[in-house]
Please model this.
Amino acid sequence: MSDKNKSVQKTSSSRRKFLVRGGLGSIGLLALGSCVFINPLRRSALGLSESLVLPYSGKGTDANLWFEFTEENTLIFHSPKVEMGQGTFTGFAQIIADELDLDMNSIIVQAAATDTGILDRFTTGGSLSIAQLYNPLREMAAMMRQMIVNEASKKLGMAVDQLRTREGFIDHPNGSLSYAEALANVTEWKLPKNVALKPSTALKHIGKPIPRIDLHDKIVGAPIFGLDAEMENMLHATIIRPEHIGSSIKSIDFSEAGQMPGVVRVVEGKGWLGIVAESFSQALAARSKVNIEWDIPKVWTEEDLRAYLKVGEGKQMITQKVGAALEDDDEFVSLSFSSPIGAHAQMEPNGAVAEVKDGKATVILSTQSIGATQHSVAKALGFKTKDVNVIGKYLGGGFGRRLDTSHAAEVALIAREIGRPVKFSFTRKEEFQNDMFRPPTHHIVKGRLNEQGGIANLEHHYASGDVAINSLLMPPAMSKMLGTDVGAMRGANIMYGNIANRRAVQWHKTLPFATSFWRSLGLLANTFAIESFIDELAWNNQIDPIALRLKSLGDDETQTRISKVIKLAAEKSNYTNELIGNRAMGFAASIDVGAPCAQVAELSLTNGIVRVEKVTCVFDCGLAVNPDQVKAQCEGSIIMGISAAMHEKMGLKDGRLFPINYGSYDMALMRHSPKEIDVHLIQGLDRPLPVGEPPLGPIGAAIGNALRRLTGTRFTDLPMKLK
Amino acid sequence: MKISFSINGKSQVLELDGNTPLLWAIRDVLDLKGTKFGCGKAACGACTIHVDGKAVRSCSFPVKMADGKEITTIEGLSKDGDLHPVQQAWKDEIVPQCGYCQPGFIMATAAMLNEIPNPTDEDIDQNIINICRCGTYYRMRKAIHKAAKLQNLQK
Ligand code: FES
Ligand code: FES
Model:
């Protein structure tokens, strides 16, 4: 694979040569019309109305380039989605390998830059990359294979049925021909109609636990990330921006900073100040010499925030309404839950390298929104979008943080002012202080049992700051039209179809600091509230919590899929309500974007220290293109969920978000992560479902429910910590 | 000031401010990008390298303290083109997700195995305290045990 890494470098130069020498324009570049997209788009649109999953939205009509063959018979797939850890590039390669009859090693997947391919306007996120592209990519690869065969048939003067494709070659009665040879003189593509996909029995890569294609690069430290990018003759910048909530710069004195060694220039922007130096450490040293007076209209405290964001305050939207509501004078149980502000804390800080020259700009960075970055940079510079090229690299974690890349425009402005390329990176303090946080939430869950020991009523009232509203994906006009924050709503509605009276009510407020998407959005906190409540109802009435859940489910297809994961999780974990020595189990389940998941957390309590020893996870992810990577996503979600449920909390201090570094922002480490994570996948549907987020649903409640058994206390506020 | 050290077996002489964190000398002067910037305050381990065989968080290690020392980064961990046992174990267990934290963990693990050739789970918990946001700890633990076996076989 190290050779492959080299080949990435090599092909890019030989590809150019190939094109120039050939002199034939777009040899090997496949431009496809919109025809391919009609079906997937319509399918996705239907999906949208069902599950609020946003459709794949790449434009199918411009000069869109998906596939590119190099002289060495390597295929480059210009992916409309970026790779941020979920193994999607590997999944894409598997799909292509099958439908195009290629060896995995001769496929290179790269994020399409704005001038090398089509992009998804709706960015990379929502765990949707494979789910959205599975069919379009299979169709496209199958079509490409057919076109190669057609070209070979012309070239060889042989009938198509005499030709067979095999790992990048076309075998014919007199020998064989590589794909690249077959394509060498093609200038115009004829799109074949009605290309058949392979039957599932013929698939050799899809559904197999094939090692990630980026594995080698990632264990040898190859320079694949946004922050590894450089440009010739570049300078380094750091940017000072307001630290206090709602504050702005009142006065600024950077005379001393400007004299520091290595400092080239100080650039004033709208509400920020850029310090440009020969090296990043010089820029940081100079930064510490800047004296700023802030204008702070209000010093926000945590008490302010709690009073501001709670059920009963803000904009009310009923997001689920079945049967009757509980009346105040009814008898019922009610519990209040909360979750704190969460930081993304992705390991690679945000940053960018930019150059502005001769009326054109180039920006290289890690982003979940290459297209939106292009637009914002163009707008800031007053350029046409086509004059801005944005190149996306591998992301050192995304989790929703990199949907906003407003810093790219700032770096481009600095680069233009300086007249040299500039590289910029957030410091970790800035990452923590200027995050697009997961909003805090407050929940009140109410319910009661019926005479048969089933649940008669269940209501979930939930308050949240912005998730989707006012974000890139849901600009103000659309937010207004929808009214509901569909992000905060993830996991908020009661999934148990057999509960006759169920209801979910959203209370939305925009907070005074930026909040947005954080892996799984509202799912983590909403499921924590609902599934903890159900467990409490069962516990207080001596009912088995699993039986209570199963009784509450209906029998349509989705309800049956939920039942299945619940039953299997109980079975695989040998679930018990009893203590086992110093250990106890907790159970929870959820369904997110159509993918049900059930988890059992087994906790131990020794000398006042709680540890998650084992998690059993049963996940119906539909068709798993790469089961090993789906399992990896379950493991990662569980560990991130443990971190969120037992450790993480952003607070406010002196009107600023706090803490400002790892360590003080308490996160799960090796010693907090379970030694056993037992994942079982179920294929309840024959298409891939999103996998990067649904397994984050149950974990918080599963831990809380185990703690209830272990300590006798019901934990209602995240993070759950023993006093 | 003038600072000389050996890095991945090659001697280097640098002329720079002695207080510059070694991380930036490695990344930006010597252009070895495998060592990562995560926090700059010795709190995450993304920048872990070896100085005279010991794991060091290079973001908080002034370059002047590296004078005359032997430095190894992820690029120099494996000898003669083979994967180091830790890298091999990481590959076998398919550990990385986003991958950004991985060089730091691999370097921290390699240093630990030099001191503790057969680490217990407790040894791992106490010594491997880097941060992985993607949550690959579960596979890492398996990979560390495997790496210990591979390394002992090689001896
Ligand atoms: S970058 Fe050095 S410990 Fe985080
Ligand atoms: S693999 Fe992404 S931070 Fe560790």
Notes: The longest helix of chain A spans residues 129-156. Residues B 37-40, 42-47, 57, 59 surround FE2/S2 (inorganic) cluster (ligand 1) (CB under 6 Å). The CA atoms of residues 237 and 276 of chain A lie 4 Å apart.
